[in-house]
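Deviation from plan, reported transparently: guanine complex.
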Amino acid sequence: MGRQTLLLGQTLSFEGSPFERGPDAARHSASGGVLIDRGLIVAVGDGAALIAAHPQAEQVRYGNALICAGFVDAHAHYPQTAIVASWGKRLIDWLNSYTFPEEMRFDDPDYAADAAQLYLDLTASHGTTTVCSYCTIHPHSVNALMQEAQSRGQRLFAGKTCMDRNAPEGLRDTAQSGYDDSKALLERWHGVDRLSYVITPRFSPTSTPEQLSAMGALWAEHPDCLMQTHLSEQLDEIAWVKSLFPQARDYLDTYESHGLLGARGLYGHAIHLEPRERTRLREVGAAMVHCPTSNTFIGSGLFDMDGLMREGQRIGLATDTGGGSSFSMLRTMASAYEIGQLRGRALHPAELMWLATVGSADTLHMGDRIGNLAPGMDADLMVLNLTSTPAIAQRADRANDIWEALFPTIMMGDDRAIHDVWINGCRR
Ligand code: GUN
Ligand code: ZN
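Because the crystal trials were delayed, the predicted structure below was used instead.
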């Protein structure tokens, strides 16, 4: 009992998807409360009623700040932290010029450990309480991030990036060693505390058919694991995939024909999809992950959020750092909004917040544990200051409802808007 904490402020949660039900799918309370006990949310409701019912709980008063679920970043590359915002390249040149040289540095376990620490500091300071990250081909790059998250009590999804071709010497494994190393890491980390292993073939161009098959076999042996990869990000990349896999019906087929299409698959970017690919992704219930700051920064294209949502696809939101240009899911929501505008569909703030929390959690098949405020869910929360800069404050001051109050922070906010973060029931 003595360990209960009652957070008081505005609260925002979801009872359904605003893409299906409109903004009414959200539950907002101007004077709400969230009761947490150790790592779990125990109750969500009216602040005064919770005070009366739990007088012994320690109270943390946030005033007008907005208590929400912590952000869930469904696709990121922690080893690219140091090359975020690198100038002037498109995807393949960007990988060769910036990404691969930086990922080579993870050969040094100490370098990986420092990067893991910095990355989890940066993401938490931006309100992100769960990430699904690629590591490098080095097994210790996985150990570094898992150990760091474990010591913080943080939920984490991560896996060893496998590549056995079209990558420099020093960044290649083999079909066999990629399988063996991934399996050993999976056995060491998957299901330990709040950690989950993710089978991670980088993308078709950097894996031989043998490696894709080996990854498919590993997934078949561990069907409860997620599998993450990249799909149809840039037109040059798609043309390259077609030349590397002449028999494939399309890009997705390079995965599908090697056992790498399934409901627990996460397909990053998914911009330039063919009708068959859309149909198959929906049929199997696979997830696509929208990475808007990356898609504009690397010049990839405009994700079809509206059309894909109407088809009933499972979609999450992600930074894709360091192809993405920000660690902030607020900035990522702003970018998703701008891409929506360019495609003729203004995403509602409820839809943007849902994508960054519930939607991303659903892509990780964790919607019952994270990404929302409800009794029994993990106490991973963040508290948004809706007046974090003078420009935002003067706009929010005129708001007539929570959406008008929140939207300036979505569009203009950054880590200064993150008033507080709770991970596993502990204040950061
Ligand atoms: N495709 C294959 N690898 C990567 C990567 O690291 N970042 C992005 N944005 N796309 C990729
Ligand atoms: Zn990526």
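The radius of gyration is 21 Å. We consider this an acceptable substitute for the interim report.
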